[in-house]
């Protein structure tokens, strides 16, 4: 696009892979989003730096406050904050260890913090490009990192509504819908997420073995019959009443619940009343969410977010297209961690023996102190990989220290004596 617009002749192209193999992609069904986020951080990334993206400023502030109340050091960042507060929060995130930044998409451009261990989304982004860019802020040091997203029915409704209500030209909105549908396809995928993501950018790959679907294959069920029941109910309600209804009402009809609204509209007399009693409300919401994702149902934003059929509904109703969906996730119970080993240590440090891990912890504490004293980001002093190498080799002289990757003449002069003091002091403690 740039070459075409600038009419460049014989431009040199530099193209690299979009793959970030150290990032593990996980997308979970949204139930209790903040509780799910807290469990993810505590189980996988306690003490790690991370970024949590939210769609609204209000949600940013509420989530940051809630994490702080839950013992997770978190800071808010959005365009509505005073510029001095934003800058102070950004500086603290860059220069401190283990701080979580909760932000809108206003945060991230130009941020170079290599040891961000996770990027989480509490709300779905607008498209795969945004998702890829935001998740790409994790693990820039090459160490294992997580891209975690919580995704639910309301995310689909909100994103489609924003497109429908946009004043843009219809052709432009069609492009936005296509990008959103690609992201929905990624969210609902039952195969390798990395393969899907890279395919979108025109790159072929093999199953990665490092996304949630590869690590624990999702259960899939034949939802063709359930989909036809739901679509038929939407159609019959529209025919009887002359207008549509929202998801809750449609699900009440399917499950045979005689609510005040159902009785008022005489919807208990519909032939589809109660034919979906075998599925729970959450299961029906999962079916609806996935039908929205494949554009077999739409939400009419101009009619109070009521459900309506689409051009794709007919083939499903006729049984011409099979519908296979993910099994709805169970309610939150004990979380099962997919990654083995230490969640709070970088990969290189997790492989250290007990004595070396103690040295690594002491070196990190020393680095944090120096960073605060000089008002610098910790990674500017030494990267985690360098500290891990020092902890592993336990050098006893400046010459031995200089032989470690990441320690040049300037850093040796500035920090060499202090590093040796930490290493030898730690050795004395272990020996004692």
Description:
This protein has 432 residues and is an alpha/beta fold. It has three domains: 21-161, Rossmann fold, CATH 3.40.50; 221-326, Winged helix-like DNA-binding domain superfamily/Winged helix DNA-binding domain (Arc Repressor Mutant, subunit A), CATH 1.10.10; 347-431, HRDC domain (DNA polymerase, domain 1, Orthogonal Bundle). It has 20 helices and ten strands. It has helices spanning 2-6, 33-44, 57-69, 83-95, 128-135, 153-164, 170-188, 193-200, 212-215, 224-241, 247-255, 260-264, 281-293, 313-317, 347-350, 354-374, 378-381, 384-393, 398-402, 409-431; strands spanning 23-29, 49-53, 74-77, 100-103, 116-121, 145-151, 220-222, 297-300, 306-309, 324-326. Strands 1-6-5-2-4-3 form a six-stranded parallel beta sheet, sandwiched between helices. Strands 7-10 form a two-stranded antiparallel ribbon. Strands 8-9 form a two-stranded antiparallel sheet. The longest helix has 23 residues, at 409-431. The chain is elongated and about 85 Å long.
């Amino acid at each position: 696009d740039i070459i075409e617009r600038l009419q460049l002749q014989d431009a040199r192209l530099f193209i690299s892979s979009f793959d970030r193999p150290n990032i593990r992609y996980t997308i979970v069904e949204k139930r209790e989003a903040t509780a799910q986020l807290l469990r993810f951080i505590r189980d996988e990334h306690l003490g790690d730096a991370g970024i949590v993206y939210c769609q609204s400023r209000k949600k940013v502030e509420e989530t940051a406050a809630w994490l702080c109340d839950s013992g997770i050091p978190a800071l808010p960042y959005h365009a509505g904050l005073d510029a001095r507060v934003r800058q102070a929060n950004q500086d603290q995130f860059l220069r401190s260890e283990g701080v979580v930044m909760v932000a809108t998409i206003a945060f991230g451009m130009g941020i170079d913090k290599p040891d961000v261990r996770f990027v989480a989304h509490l709300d779905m982004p607008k498209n795969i490009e945004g998702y890829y860019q935001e998740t790409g802020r994790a693990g820039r040091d090459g160490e294992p990192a997580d891209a975690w997203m919580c995704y639910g029915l309301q995310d689909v409704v909100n994103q489609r509504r924003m497109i429908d209500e946009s004043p843009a030209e219809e052709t432009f909105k069609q492009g936005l819908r296509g990008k959103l549908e690609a992201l929905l396809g990624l969210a609902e995928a039952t195969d390798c997420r990395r393969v899907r993501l890279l395919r979108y950018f025109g790159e072929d790959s093999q199953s990665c073995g490092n996304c949630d679907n590869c690590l624990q294959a999702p259960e899939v069920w034949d939802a063709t019959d359930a989909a036809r029941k739901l679509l038929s109910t939407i159609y019959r309600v529209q025919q009887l009443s002359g207008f549509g209804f929202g998801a809750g009402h449609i699900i009440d009809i399917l499950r045979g619940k005689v609510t005040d609204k159902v009785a008022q509209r005489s919807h208990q007399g519909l032939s589809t009343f109660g034919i979906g009693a075998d599925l729970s409300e959450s299961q029906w919401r999962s079916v609806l969410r996935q039908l929205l994702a494949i554009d077999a149902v739409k939400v009419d934003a101009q009619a109070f977010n009521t459900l309506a059929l689409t051009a794709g509904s007919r083939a499903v109703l006729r049984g011409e297209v099979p519908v296979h969906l993910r099994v709805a996730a169970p309610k939150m119970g004990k979380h099962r961690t997919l990654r083995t080993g230490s969640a709070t240590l970088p990969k290189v440090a997790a492989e250290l023996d007990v004595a070396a891990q103690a040295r690594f912890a002491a070196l990190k504490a020393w680095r944090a102190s120096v960073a605060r004293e000089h008002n610098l980001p910790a990674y500017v002093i030494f990267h985690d990989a360098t500290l891990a190498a020092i902890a592993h080799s336990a050098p006893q002289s400046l010459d031995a220290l200089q032989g470690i990757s990441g320690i040049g003449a300037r850093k040796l002069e500035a920090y060499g004596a202090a590093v040796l003091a930490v290493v030898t002091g730690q050795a004395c403690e272990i020996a004692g």
